[in-house]
Structure formats: structure tokens, C-alpha cells
Write the C-alpha cells for this entry.
Amino acid sequence: MKHLLIVLLLLPFTSHGQVVNTEKLRLNKDKKGFFGEANFDLGLVRNRAGQTVRLGAGARLEWQGAAHRWMLLGSYSLSQFNDIDEPDSAPKNFANNGFGHLRYNYRANRWLTWEAFAQAQYDRIQQIDLRLLAGTGPRLRLVKTDSAQLYFGALYMFEHEEARNEFEAPEAYTEHLMLDDHRLSTYLSAGFRFTSYLTLNHVTYFQPNLSNFSDFRISSETSLSIKLTDRLSLRTYFQLIYDTEPLIPVPNAMYVLNNGFSLAL
């Protein structure tokens, strides 16, 4: 199992959209030491149009000390389509994205934690070749009980993005774009444990450009986890993302509905 976790962490990294929700990837363990978890998504659809294969894998590894916490996250997903009318043709990738995230937490007291993070991601569908993020700021614990928790964070974030805008007409060419900006990344994270096997988590991010507040992103995600065994859980989540000024002309609003399994290591 340890070898499986290492392989997953070395996979190319991915996200479903432009805002990566690291809140759902926290283990929230109070005990000291190392903790890990792996996630898998696999789908296969075949009909008269062809065959679609969807594959996703992710992993996280945390070390928790008395006042310090390190968190390493990685994820990858790929979707391929085979045209049934052209069985000898090469599979077409219509979704391919990934991300890697490293975060450090210093707990100053019971209600205040200072965070610092670095992240790299790419998204072929959104035509993002590379996005690099780095930031730091406070995280406040508003509520924490055995059945509920509520956190608020407000971090400064530097963003570097490289993208390509591909055109088909009147003649095929690619426009390469690059952007550096400074953003405020705020979030409100809530978690509820209804029973020993049923939990609900929600997080909303608001990320305005510090030099132009009309340029902002909003990401809202809700996830439901059903514990099947001590280590295996079934997860369903819905994410909605809205970006007022994407670097390239893509839809301002995007959503993701996904199902999968989670394996605690």
C-alpha cells in the first residue's frame, strides 16, 4: 500500500477546473504523525458513437506535529474517446489535467493558524499550459465540535499563468498568453458529521484581483461522503466555478459532478 501511495504522488497533477479545492483534501487529524489517503475514479462507456474511458487518481500525505503541519497533494485525470466508425484511429484526449500542492500550517493557538502554500497545475480543456500559485495568510477556526466545524481563511496569493488560445478559422494559429497578478484568496469551509458513516463538507472560495476587484473567481463545492468500511468511502461532490475574466475566451461558469471512492492508508 505504501508503494501505491508513492506511485500516485508521482503521477502528473490535476484539478477539475481553475480553482483547486484543498479544503476537501485536508485529513483534519488531531493525532501526531503521518497520514495518507488515495482516491480513484474509473468510468467506461460504450455506445454506437464509440467508447469513452475516464480515469482519475489522487493522493495526499500529511505530517502533523504539535504546532506544525505539512500537506502534500496530487491528482490526475484523463478522458479518452475512440470513434467506433474509425476503429484504427488513435484515441482522442478530450480532458487531461493535473495539479500538485504543498502547504505548511503553523498553529499559533487554538483558533489561529498561519498558512503558506505553493501550487502547480495544468488543464488541457481550459488550454492552461501552466499555472503557478504561491501565497500565505491566516486561517481562523470559528466553530469546532464533534459534529461540526467552520473555518475562515484570507490569504495573499501570487499567480503566474501561461495559456494558449487556439483558433480554427480563418486560418489555424495559436496565440500564447502570459499573465502575472496578485489576488486575495478568501474561503469559508464547513463540515458536518451526521453519523459515524455520513459526512457533508462545503467550501466557498472568493479570489478577487487586488488591482481590479471586478476581476474575480468564485468556487463553491459540496461533497457527501459515505463510509463503507473503516478504510473505504464512497464520495459524491458538485463544484460550481465562476470566473469574470478568464485569460482566454472560455465559458465564465463551469460545473463538475463527480463520484468516486476514497481509500484511507
Observations:
- The radius of gyration is 19 Å.
- The domain at 2-264 is CATH 2.40.160.40 (Porin).
- The chain has one domain: 2-264.
- Helices lie at 2-9.
